[in-house]
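Chapter summary example.
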Amino acid sequence: MKTKIGLLYGGKSAEHKVSLQTALAVIGALDLEKFEIHPIYINEEGQWIKGPQLTGPVENVSALGFSGDNQVSTLSLAPALFHSGTQANEPLDVIFPLLHGPNGEDGTVQGLLELLNLPYVGNGVLASAAGMDKVMMKNVFAQAGLAQVNYLAFIKSEWEKEKATVYTKVEQELGYPCFVKPANLGSSVGISKCSNQSELEAAFIEAFQFDRKVIIEEGVVAREIEVGILGNDEPECSVPGEIVAKKDFYDYKAKYEDGDTAMIIPADVTDTEYQHIKEMAIKAFKALDCSGLVRADFFLTKDGRALINEVNTMPGFTPFSMFPLLWKHTGVEYPQLIERLVNLAKERHTQKQNIKYTF
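The structure predicted for these 359 residues follows.
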């Protein structure tokens, strides 16, 4: 019997287009002999639209943006939205959230799926929320004893009241160069590299367009090494990969639009360096109580020090994406990777059904 899988994509987020690209790639990799594909699209206004069951490949992302009378708001979600047929007794077997950024990767949708008691691929509410908020994530990493760059964080009202004080603190504690980022966003959206106070001010203005909280990180001279983690209670680590950006840093355009980067897989690191990165990645995975998948990003300095930068709890599956390529070089092809993720989702859901909720 085929597994009925609901692909949840789009989203009310600055990363809406990234999600569509991810959905397109996943649809192309799913084995139609094993899976029924039921698309569920969230448009940029936040309306949920269930499309017809897919019976073949989709040519481009424009075919994934449904519209019509079957729209429902998130406040009036119809139970049939997450069912494979018109009858409420035909539930989907697994939901695969292919959502990036806020309102999708941050624990909000995961919480909805928990309330509906539906199996879903990827991280749960806590890991998703903490992984999305870079400040909370780094605080957890610090508590776990993981080495990382120095950082500061500010909320918008704090910055608006004391801009000069904020800039001085950044300069004194972090110095230049530094990076300013929205705390709750991914895919390199809203990130700026700063070399002076004028650039710092412009970076704050840019970042606060996307979030009420920003994080500022100390700049380091280092290589960017990434690994993929797959599993639940016993996570496994992929081979390492290296990002070499042709631009000053790995921004949104380089990542998703023009592929203006080089990905070196496997990365040229020593066995000692890899083992250390692997241990740190798995420690970070467990510290955030992750499940399913993450991509863990590191800085590797010239003297061999590994500093964890962040984890991505829903890494992209686009043609330029690192996560599936890492696993391909580890021996797990794309269709196998998706099947493993679906099985991990079922495994975690089964474990939760065994929890006692009454006494």
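To summarize the output: The two ends are 37 Å apart (CA to CA).
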